[in-house]
Amino acid sequence: MKKVMIIGAVGAGKSTLIQALFGESQPAAKTQSLIYRDWVIDTPGEYSENPLYYRSLMATSHEAAAVLLVQDATRDRNYFPPGFEQGFAIRTLGAVTKIDHPLADIDRAIDLLRQSLPEGEIFLTSATSSQGIDKLRTRIMQIVRS
Questions:
Q1: How do residues 34-80 score in pLDDT, each as one tens digit?
Q2: Where are the domains of the chain?
Q3: Helix (H, G, I), strand (E, B) or coil at 71
Q4: What does the alpha-carbon distance between residue 18 and residue 5 come to, in Å, rounded to a whole number?
């Protein structure tokens, strides 16, 4: 089965999002290295925050059917460079996490993500309430099974 590679800053909610996509509820652990699991490649947050790791992300993307860029709705900064999705030769999607957090600013998060993902689909998600999780999982499954 093909995989989706999930990329986002430290603390953006990548591992928690992955657990929600798998229907799990235990606390997420910090990702220290690339983790391959079923149809997911989980990447450490440092990989998106440090340009020295971009080459590794680009190389790893060749093992995936799609890339999912994750933006935390509580942050006021984008950790991806402008046009980041253009570095991948595969479909790129976006996910805004923590949309039900009291400090969430969904419109800002979408605007920040659009700097790096000008045209890809963006899904609004909350691992806490499961909002948007089924829709994102369905879309990912369409991609990895095609």
A1: 899 999 999 998 988 888 889 899 999 999 999 999 999 999 999 99
A2: 4-144
A3: strand
A4: 11
Distance between terminal CA atoms of the chain? 9
Both tokens assigned to 99: 């949309």
Residue 20: φ, ψ to 5°: -65, -40
Q: Which fold would CATH assign to domain 4-144?
A: Rossmann fold (3.40.50)
> Do the beta carbons of residue 123 and residue 96 sit within 8 Å?
yes
Q: What does the alpha-carbon distance between residue 61 and residue 102 come to, in Å, rounded to a whole number?
A: 34
91: DSSP letter:
E
The closest alpha carbon to 98, from 3, 1, 17, belongs to 17
Render pLDDT for 3-30 as a digit per residue (tens, 0 to 9): 999 999 999 999 999 999 999 977 777 7
CB 6, CB 36: distance < 8 Å: no
* Separation CA 54–CA 16 (nearest Å): 23
